[in-house]
Design a protein that fits this description.
8 helices, elongated, about 0% strand, mainly alpha
Length: about 170
């Protein structure tokens, strides 16, 4: 049966059957991953199975159990990323408090920046947060994301311009 499953994966068939996919979704949901991110989690499990097959590794003995472990790891990674973003937001707020002692000004600016960040495309928001809130250099961001440095610079430029325009539009700065 394992050989049949490995052959199906090599032939381009879905490496997860319906029951395994339901189990993965359940593990993700129980792990606290929101409904909107469940498809990403399922895809990550599929990707891991396909990567194993591409490397020529033997299929896991119990694909369902293996998939559940991968899904559990995805859920933990999701929570880590969420906490990391929360810390970035807290750090941004504390930096703004140092620059603007007035509590009201700080609240308005922090809210406007947060809303502006939310409106940026994911790729722009990602490089902006990594550069200015995680203090990664352009080269470090490029390595982390696996993209060219020029792409990082371009995304940063677009993100900063869009965020600046948003803050001026809202008359915050």
């Amino acid at each position: 049966m394992l050989r049949r499953k490995a052959r199906r994966v090599q032939e381009g068939a879905d490496p997860l059957d319906a029951a395994q996919e339901r189990r993965v979704r359940a593990v993700l949901a129980l792990g606290g991953v929101p409904q909107t991110d469940l498809p990403d989690g399922v895809q990550q499990v599929r990707l891991r199975l396909l990567e194993r097959a591409a490397k020529g590794d033997e299929a896991p003995r119990d694909v369902s159990a293996w998939a559940a472990v991968v899904a559990s790891n995805f859920a933990m990674d999701w929570h880590r990323a969420k906490r990391r973003q929360e810390r970035v937001g807290e750090r941004l707020a504390s930096l703004r408090q140092l620059e603007h002692p007035s509590g009201e000004d700080t609240s308005v600016l922090s809210l406007a920046v947060a809303q502006g960040l939310d409106e940026l495309p994911d790729q722009q928001r990602q490089v902006l947060v990594l550069r200015f809130f995680a203090d990664l250099p352009v080269r470090g961001i490029a390595e982390e994301l696996g993209i060219p440095e020029g792409t990082v610079k371009s995304r940063l430029h677009s993100a900063v311009r869009a965020l600046r325009d948003r803050l001026h539009e809202d008359e915050v700065v």
